[in-house]
Structure formats: structure tokens, C-alpha cells
Amino acid sequence: MAQSPTKDIAFITEPIREGLERVNQHLVGVAGAARLSGDAAMLQHAVVSGGKKLRPALTLLAGSFHPGYEDALVTMGAAVELLHIATLIHDDTVDKADTRRGRATVGNLWGPDVAVLVGDYVFATSATFVCDTGNIRVVRRFSETIMELAQGELAERFAAHNWEQTIDDYNARIYDKTATLFCTAAESGGVLSHAPESETQALYQYGYNLGMAFQVMDDVLDLAGTEEELGKPVGNDLLQGTLTLPVLRFAERYPHEPVLVRVRQGSREPADLAALVAAVRDSDAIGEAFAVMEGYRDQALAALHRLPATRERASLEALVAYATDRRV
């Protein structure tokens, strides 16, 4: 089925098409400036890809309400995209992933040691871009974001198979893992375009709720999607020990479910894990998690109502639909 124009990526990016092209040129420049004596294609493969570039799009759109600061916004857009790319490189390396969205990972092509170093290089490069904005508030927020991203990944590793964690723990983890970068992308657009503080705070709240909704939707789809849509087994997070919102809701509601009891007592048997995935998938926990996502979605849209009603705001509204009304 064709997407509605109100959530089509072309509609979302139409007002900032030139800015996104300039962001992409920065990424190409990063790949060409590394002066690697080995495989020159490595940085190109790692940094320059299709991708939707949602995060730099968010920065450019957030900064569009007060024109005249396009250079700083493009620089920041490149920074947030490089930071996102660096986290993906490290995530894929830790997960020993062979592919991401159909493309071979850096670790698959050049080995995990090289992948870690490439991720470090991209992290550091993102920081130089943010410094080029010359805005200490943005530099500080970006530094906090790097810390929070790492904190989120560590929390996820240490919480694997830990049934003592709470939904509050989950919320803190997905903020660190996902929403923090959406917050930074949106807030920095307001800061760098010298928006009034009330608008900048509205953009921050928009980014927070968009990021939270985005991750909860991912966690719902991990259980409600199909293997063909997901490109991985249904319930892969649970199979790997990551307890997401639908699973935690199920555990609260059905604490005496026999398969849940076995898994909570330490069973890692594939049959038990698969049975638990099926039980969660068939329960009302999926709908409850989806309702939480809808709450974040609605709060993101409410934050936008505190901003001028421009064409760019329509793109930000469409971005909410794009992020939350999806199958993959």
C-alpha cells in the first residue's frame, strides 16, 4: 500500500532538501579526508549510505522557524548523523552482526578490531563538527548525549535476562539509547537558530517524545511484525535477553504463566524462549505497549502546537507519523 503524503519521506524533507544534500556532502568529505593508507573504501562504506537521515532532517527542520543560520544547522546535522552512524558501527560490532538493512557491516568486511577503531574515528569526527558550530550550549548537550548513548548500551547489556528490572528502568534505558539523540537533534536546531527559549524547549519536548515513541514502536514491532518484515526472528530482543515494554507488561499482568516462570527461573532453552515470545505476541501486552507509544506520539504533536504553523512544522508533524505508523 502506498504511503499517505502526510507521512511520506519526500514530503518531510522537501523544505530542507538542499540542506540535507549539504549534510551528505559533509559525510562524503569525512570519508575522503581520513588519509587511510589501507582500504580507502572503508570510511566511504561506513559513513556514506542511503539511509533516511531522520536526525539531521530533524535538526534542519527545527532550525527553520528562524531563517539565516543554515550553515550552522548543516554542520550540526552532519554531527548528529555521524554520531548516529558511530553508535551503529559499535552496536553491530558488539552484536557480531553481519548485515544492517541489507548491507554488510564494517565488522563483517574488515573485522571487529577495525570496526571499533572506525567507530571511534567517526565519534571523534562528529565532535569536531559540533565544535565548529561555536556554541558552547550545543557542545555541552552533544557531550552529554554521547555519555547517555553509552550509558544506554551498557544498561541494556547489564540488564540482559534480568527480570528484576522495572518499566521505569526500561524508560530510562530507551531514553539513553534512542531518545537522547532525537532531543539533541531537535533542541540544537532551536539553539543554533536563536529561537526564543520557549520554542527551544518545545523542540526539546518534541524530540524527547518522538524518540521515546520511535523506540517503543520498534519494540512493539519486534514482537508484532513478521520475520520477512523485520529481517530477523520475531521476538529477537527477548531471544537475546533484552526485556522490552511488551515483555515487561506481560510479566506484570501474567506473573504465574508457566513458561514465564521457567524463563524467570533461568531457562534459556530455545523452546521456552520461543513459547514466551508467542505468549507475549498473543497477549494484550502488545496493545498496552502500543497505547504507551500513542501517548508519546500525541505529546510530540502537542509540543509542536507551541511553534509557528509553517510548512516546516507540517514536516515535523509528518515525521511523527512516519516514525510511529510503520511496519519496519
Summed up:
The chain has 328 residues and is mainly α. The two termini are 14 Å apart. 72% of the residues lie in helices and 1% in strands.
List the helices and strands and how they pair.
Layout lengths: L8 H5 L3 H16 L8 H7 L6 H9 L7 H26 L3 E2 L2 E2 L1 H5 L1 H21 L3 H23 L8 H26 L4 H28 L2 H4 L5 H4 L5 H9 L4 H7 L5 H12 L3 H20 L6 H14 L4
Antiparallel strand pairs: 1-2
Features:
single chain, 328 residues, mainly alpha, two-stranded antiparallel sheet, 17 helices, 2 strands, disordered N terminus
Report helical residue fraction.
Answer: over 70%
DSSP strand count: 2
Structural class label:
mainly alpha
Report low-confidence residues grouped into runs of 5 or more: 1-5
Radius of gyration over alpha carbons? 20 Å
